[in-house]
Amino acid sequence: MSRKPRLRSGSGVTMHDVGLAAGVSAITVSRALHSPERVTPALREKILQVVEQLGYVPNRSARQLASARSHTVLVLIPSLSNTVFIDALAGIESVLQPAGYQMLIGNTHYSDSEELALLRAYLQHSPDGLLVTGLQQAEAFSRILQERQLPAVYMMDLSDDGRPCVGLSQEAAGAAMTRHLLQRGRRRIAYLAAQLDERVVKRLQGYRQELTAAGCHDPALEWLNPAPSSMQLGADMLDQLLAAHPDCDAVFCCNDDLAIGAIARCQQRGIAVPGQLAIAGFNDLQAAAWTTPPLSTIATPRFAIGAAAARLLLQQLQGQQETGGSRCLDLGFQLQQRGST
Amino acid sequence: MSRKPRLRSGSGVTMHDVGLAAGVSAITVSRALHSPERVTPALREKILQVVEQLGYVPNRSARQLASARSHTVLVLIPSLSNTVFIDALAGIESVLQPAGYQMLIGNTHYSDSEELALLRAYLQHSPDGLLVTGLQQAEAFSRILQERQLPAVYMMDLSDDGRPCVGLSQEAAGAAMTRHLLQRGRRRIAYLAAQLDERVVKRLQGYRQELTAAGCHDPALEWLNPAPSSMQLGADMLDQLLAAHPDCDAVFCCNDDLAIGAIARCQQRGIAVPGQLAIAGFNDLQAAAWTTPPLSTIATPRFAIGAAAARLLLQQLQGQQETGGSRCLDLGFQLQQRGST
DNA sequence: GTGCCAGATGTTAGCGCTAACAAATCGGCG
DNA sequence: CGCCGATTTGTTAGCGCTAACATCTGGCAC
């Protein structure tokens, strides 16, 4: 009258089974797989053969439970529909995958509270570290990280408080594009923005600085819309802007989506670009090179940012707590001048 | 001389601790959290309070190990940089997240062998089910699914072999667009394709059928390039096509990326669209509405496909093995006629 | 031969949780 | 008043793996 055996997950072959078949104990199998240098080469070879033969698949939960390390990294991004973050994700994947780390993706929908909720939810997986977009999280967020001693690397921006980060100066990039427009002789330069996340605001600050320095800053030319960014919105905002300020001679859009909508609307309305109106975007999405005229924009190294951030995090996880040197990596940006300016 | 306590992962608060503080046993805490109906409301309330107070976070690995269920779904998509799959991903997320399921994302890079390798690697997480893009996997792939009795739902296409799937008839969609071009009076209709995955090939089949039926199929007008799809490639392929076949009067691109490149190149070369050449795309990406002229294309319900596939999988996981009725869901498509045709 | 050390392998226990069974509790009814 | 069944809670064991310690082996110095 023995009790029912439990349901086995996976293939049912355990490390113990492999050991049995290879004539060793389970722990030796574990070592053969995860710290090869602690097992005689011949024995290791034999064990690997048996693993192959039995189709053994290690159980990650058991490993995690026993070792208190999950080999998992939580990645928080504001949106799945914005290519910018997907590119960074690809960069992260390219580093974590080969290193044997699992990537958990959390979509915060640009919301601090959702971000916090996601962090709480994903703590159940006890990630070894975090990759976070941006620097401004809810207060409770940083508290949790601190309590649990969770290492984190921040992406897309540069911090001034010692937190490890990989990105670019959004402010400098905003300033660079504004300077470019000034150099092209524009004086009535508008700033069109949507979504209004921290990066968009920092670009705005760069824009303000340059215009103020040049003596032609006009707050009335700043059009900020908290709605999600889209090409439709770019077109609509352009219409509104021109209706209110027909003398405007350049539009700096906070991202390429808005800019593509704006440029298409100009095309529709017969507004000469850049003759009457220069248009600039931000991010250098693939489509930016294929508008009429092609869009001037700021190219950002998203893939590289993701990859570098992942590498930085892995360094921390592997205990290389290099104390010296700032751990802030500035990967810069590049002004792509095309036909629209 | 007691041994060192093991490193604790997470916060260190266990179910046992919660039970202790609430004056109940660990299993009661487990029940309060996961099967509320098995605990007196008052007690449950108290337990939840203690959970909150102690900041208890359940350990998913332990749960998984003990219950042989991972509450995890593996999602395999061919690419992260193609919006089509990201949209589906968003749909999947919208269903799995609220249901308490974790989504593991595997990027197959359009490769059968990588897909198989990913499946093998992710088996370590013992996913409860799979969401797979397309129907054509390596042979070993299906064998593994069968061996482990892993439920899977296939996305983006329709099967004819009884496998549960959610998508649309790629063939019918290809045919519909071709029919549309024929109705607009075109006779020399080219098919421009890249990446050449199974969906692209099926659209090609639909295209062939319609043209053959109309008596104007010319294999020389099929331009198939295995390289990854991009706007640049679309522009290049258009040039090559027109150099070889100046009499061509319509181009059906297998996706919007190619079409956007092609339409931009026409603009650059002064080729009248649709006057001299009609151009059509596939998928209805956001940018398709903002080219000059706006691109005619086939709108596909990607988000809905992802969501429906996830729901279908959850049904299977929750044991509702409804035997009756096909489990193939055709969510259709819509022809978006715009200025380019 | 003895002692010793380094390296290879094994033993034991326990990570945190839940399935299965066991016990306690309660209300209602003969 | 005691017995029944239903409901609520507890006990026990074990999921598969690995940290820590224990043991074994062989080689080498003296």
From TrEMBL, chains A, B:
Keywords: DNA-binding, Transcription, Transcription regulation
Span of domain HTH lacI-type: 13-67
Keyword Transcription regulation: yes
PROSITE patterns, alphabetized: HTH_LACI_2 (PS50932)
Listed InterPro entries: HTH_LacI (IPR000843), LacI/GalR-like_sensor (IPR046335), Lambda_DNA-bd_dom_sf (IPR010982), Peripla_BP_I (IPR028082)
One MF term in the entry's GO annotations: DNA-binding transcription factor activity
PANTHER family assigned: HTH-TYPE TRANSCRIPTIONAL REGULATOR GNTR, LACI-RELATED TRANSCRIPTIONAL REPRESSOR
Keyword Transcription regulation: yes
Domain of life of the source: Bacteria
Ranges annotated as spanning the membrane: none
Any Pfam family hit: Peripla_BP_3
UniProt protein name: LacI family DNA-binding transcriptional regulator
Signal sequence range: none
